[in-house]
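Progress narrative, work stream C.
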Amino acid sequence: MTYPDPDDFTRTVQDMSSKDLGRLNMSQYTKTERRIINDELVRRSDERKAGNSKVATKKRKTVTSWSMYPELVEDVEEKMRKPYTFYNVDDGLHALKEYDTFVCGVFLCKRRCSNRSWFSGKIAISIRLYDRDQYNVRVHHQRCRGCDALSRPKLDAETYGERVSYRLNLWSGFKIRLPRYKKKKTLPHDCEKCEGCDIGRCPHDKDKEEYVMCRRHCRSDP
């Protein structure tokens, strides 16, 4: 059976018994489906360790692969040439314009494995413009290299404000000079651990063949 909608597959996996879930042949599933299965296995394992005996009766929470940061609105507003309002609804269908770029920040593994934290200068974000001078930004999470658990980053507010305000000012017709940043030595961008890459919305090395190959194997964001 195929599942064109990841949410349908997530619900199917969550409804499986632990016995059936453990018998799944991972080689028969896509990359996205394998991650959904792994997230459910990790969730159930954590609940067992916490001594939760009512797993089946409680509402299960799906691990999200992205976040929005309305708390960073002021960091954007102070650099704007005209006022915009943050649209706190993740709506990719009605966006007038979209642009993928990067910000930097720090990730902390919630499972506290050997790879507890890491800095990334390539956290993929998708800036979206709506009517009535509204915008929002989807920040894509990354996975821990040690245990593959999803992690939500703590963003560098200054970089976030500069990148987002630059794009909005550009869309408004203002000529703005793009800020220059000092390059930091970090590990190469790991497409396998980037949730932006997983849905084809990560512009890493877009001028190189690596980005072209990434766009070929990643599905498009619906």
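Work stream C, second folded protein:
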Amino acid sequence: MDIGTLDVAPVISPTNIVQRVKKMFPPSRTLSARENGDAAVSNPASIGYDRAAVAANISATQWTTQVTIGGQVLNLLVDTGSSDLVRGFVAFDDVSVGASPPVLMAIEVATEVSETIKGFDEWDGILGLGFRDLNTVVPNKVDSFMLRLLESYPPTLPVFTVDLNPQRPHSKPTVEIGKIDREKANGDLQHAPVNNSSGWWAVDDISFEVDGQALPVRQTMIFDTGGSSTISVQPEVAAAYYNNTGAVNFYNDGTYYFPCSTKLPDLKMYIGNGTAIYRASLLSAPAGNDGQCVGVINGNLTGMGNVGGPFFEAHFVVFDYATPAIQYAPFL
């Protein structure tokens, strides 16, 4: 059986609000295509920007769904990059998401909320969908909502799928539990084994290609729906990507700046037995009002990378607990 379909909604907010909840940026919705041009690269500092200001200029999207806790309906962020339900002291209550049946589980109830978050009322907390090892409850970790649901009401398929592309006609973003709607996928679903030893939906041995050149780099990357608008990669991957664009890493922090007229290449990423292509139209964002842009591919990686918001905007994704594994395909 399939357990149900959850409608999710995009909520736009400045990234400085999101940084109070998570240390990574959520998916960006201000990305656009760029053309070739002759404009020079400006040092952000020389035109009155600093790194914090540039980050704050990028709008962000979180994906929320309605969650019922003890009879109260809340809007929570859909987050495969954590395993907690809300934050704070631990209580137990019945929890259901959308039309799913209720499960009794641990809830972390916030006792303090920052002033910044108090002013942003479109969401009430976080619905973590990662694995148990990522949970922060002490002294004993607890399962996430999805694991509790699959344990209490075992579906035919122990999966959930995410469709987070709001741009396709006659469709709306959804999370579906216990079923795979293959009609949303353009072609066969590709498969990648997940390394969940740290609680993440993480895939090892991902490699890259830029302008037909395979890069001699392999890295582990996480699939985080509540994570970053940036695609976090090793410094050498970012350097190779921007090599022929004239982009400049002014602060040596992996963030590259360039005129918005710059023509960027696509990025090809080999994930499991398949290939994901990041189109150049998704790989830049405005850095201000002076025609300068910032790259979505960031090379300041000091651990696992992140496939970034553009991956979920372009792909139908299956989170499979059975193996575990990630399956993906471009949207139809």
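Residues 184 and 277 are 17 Å apart (CA to CA). No further action is required on this item.
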